Each structure stands twice: as C-alpha cells, then as structure tokens.
Amino acid sequence: MPVGETLETPCYTQIHRFDLRKEPGLAIEWQISRLDNGLRVVTTPVPTAQSASVNVFVGVGSRGEERRTNGLSHYMEHMLFKGTTRRPDAIQIAEAIEGAGGVLNAYTSKELTCYWNQVPFDKLPLAMDVVADMYRHSLLAQEEIDRERTVVQQEIRRSFDQPGAWASELLARATFGDQPIGWPIAGSIETVEAMNRDDFEGHIATHYVPSNTVLSVAGNATHEEVLRRAEELFGDMEDRPAPAPAPAVDQFAVDQVVVEKREIAQCNVGIALHALRRKDPDRYALTVLNTILGRGMSSRLFKEVRERRGLAYSVGSGASRFNDIGVMSVTAGVTLEHLEEATTVIRDELFKMAAEPPSEEETMKARDFATGNFRLGLESTMALAQRAGESLLMTGEIEPIEDVVGKTHAVTPADVQRLAQRLFKPGGFSMAVVGPGGDADRLRGILAAG
Hints:
- The chain is of the alpha+beta class and 450 residues long.
- It has 2 domains: 232 residues, Cytochrome Bc1 Complex, Chain A, domain 1, CATH 3.30.830; 192 residues, CATH 3.30.830.10.
- It has 16 helices and 13 strands.
- The chain has an 8-stranded mixed β-sheet, sandwiched between helices. The protein has a 5-stranded mixed β-sheet with strand order 9-13-10-12-11, with helices on both faces.
- The N terminus is likely disordered.
C-alpha cells in the first residue's frame, strides 16, 4: 500500500503526501495541503516534464442552479475570460498565456467548473497568476455580459443544430425529469437572455469561496513552490460555507421516450438508465460491464449491432457518476427502417448480461482494456492535474492509481452479472430519438418488455 504521512507546518493547516515512488515500479506521487482559509492545493510533480498544468476547480455546476438561472455556471465560465482589473480585456488574458507558448480554456459540468492552462514549466508563476486573477478579479462588465450573451446563445443553438448533441440533451431530460440534474448545462435561450449582473456577482459570492475550491498543479514543479505561490494569490480570501446542491430524485420524466422528428437521413438514438453514484462500491464492476457492453470494436454491442446485423455505423455505451446518482447510456446512429430492430437488439444485449455471466476470458480482456486505457489516459500533466483536482473536490480524496487498477482487476464474471441484474430491468429505461421518425409508443413497448 502507498505510504501516507501528515506533516504540520506553521503556515498551512496540513500537508498530506501519498508517495507512490516507495512502491516498486511506481513513479507518481501527489501532495495535498489546505490553506488556513480552507482552499485545498494538490500537486502532482513530474520532474521530467517540460510543462506545468494549472487548474482551478470550483464546486458548482448546472445542478447547483435555480430554474431561473439555469446555465449561469457555464455563462460565468465564459465571463471570467472577459477581463480583470489588471488585464481589462479578453485579449490581454489570452496573450499572457499564449505569449508564453501556453494554452488556456475552461469547462462546466453538472457538478463543477474548471479553469485551466498549460504552460512551459518555467512559466508556472505566470500561469498561476493569470488563473488567480481571473478567479478573483474579473470585471463582469455589463458591456461584456451583453456581448457574451449572444455567444452563449449561439452555443446553445449549435447544440440544437447537431442531432447527436441534441439527442443527448433530450435523453438527460427523459432520464432525470424536471430537476437540476436533468437540466442542460448551458441553460436555454430564455434563461441566458434573462440573466443580469447581479446574478453573476451573487454566483461568485456564493460559490467561489476557498473551501469550495481546489487548485491542482501537475508537471515540473515542486509542492513547496506551488504552495508558496498559492498562499500569495489566494491566502487573503475570506471563507464562507457554500450551499450543496439539492439531492437528485431517482425518477424518470413522465415521458421516458421522446421522439423529435427532423428531415435528416439518420435516427440519432440514446437509451439510458439510472446507474451508480460516484463512490458506489460497484463502480469497478461498472467499468468492466461497460467495457464488455460497448467500448471499442470488440464490445458486444459493436459486434452484434454493427458487425453481425449491419444495423448501425456507430454504436457504443458509456457511464457517468455523480455524487448521489449516475447514468449509463447506449448511443447509436441508425436508419428509420432499422430503429425498432436496433432498439430490440440493444435491449436484448443488456438483459443477456443479467441472464448469464460473461466468460472469464471476456472479463479478463475487458479488465485489461479498461485498466490499460486508464493508465494511458494519465500520460499528460493535464490529465494528472485534472484527475487529482476533480477527485479531491468531489470526494475529498484521491484514490491511488494502483488501487483503481487492482480493484478493477479483481472484478469477476459474477460481479458483472450481479451488477447487470441490479441495473437492467424492464421499463427501467429512457430513450431519445432525433431523426426522420419513430413511434414513441412502440419504442416504449420494446423497452418495457423483459
């Protein structure tokens, strides 16, 4: 097991170190500190890297919003790039990082907002200064709010114009119904239009507070260097409690099957079910189950739906875990004439996993695929910083890489079948179709059949 130690210092509350290099063959460590005001700092040093990735995570996303302000977290993400007291316009913010050879961006999800940049390692002080300046000193000028409003609305319209993306939005609504976890991350044209400067200022005052924030840095940098700079940039902030989002209700929408007709050649299909929360003990089995079902060209769905029956060009599955609920989904692109057959085949493949366990060989291949893909996904400083920051913010800890690999390799065929029986039940599915047609009642009947 990785060695853990806690160090007390006069300047900072705690430093937690998880030193994986004390284990044979391992070379990743991270250290966690908490400033006196509650802001957490995690570093993943990679001494051989030529880059440093700086990420600020804030614990608010679309599920932390009210109906009237749905989309505010995402809109705020845009606004923090529009000027600060020291860099009063978007060009100066961009030039500060890009002029050093770096890149910068941000994203918003259901549960968090992240601002990040990546720079050559010797530009780390600049990178931290820019992201702290954005986080703390954004102007939120009315002129920029009004100008960016159109940009955000165009982003929403673009999603509507892309049938696959819009099918995903409809699927989220069908899966969770009218509650924040089912609302769109970007909001709607109407909610974005109605937002005002007071909404932005209130959002920052409520959520952008030290105890709701994690600074995560990975790359060629020391923990001491990052910690010292973090204290200079964030240490004088006052903390106050940030509200937690309302718990998700485990329910579907009244209309579990939604069909939106468009004059296009293909039906963009999504089928979903309620799955596992972020820390559910079965999460490792879910990784293996999902891999067997729909990851890659050797998955069951790809082989049955595409290779054997020729019903779709693309088909696959995925899973997302939130703090108190989760979702698993299957997506496919099919012609109208194959829509009902493809839905039946997908349903049957799900129930087949519940009816009998996969073979040991199939399970082993899925374990190897999943763990190998997991390792390869952590090759960059950006990936390491993102994993550490999100995990620390969402769960309060960072699970050692070898623990994830070991627990995934421990999943058995019986574990996969047991989880499939837990998840796959007649009538326990939602569905969204965007395409040239489809009979919602007939599709509902297919999904309801055992």
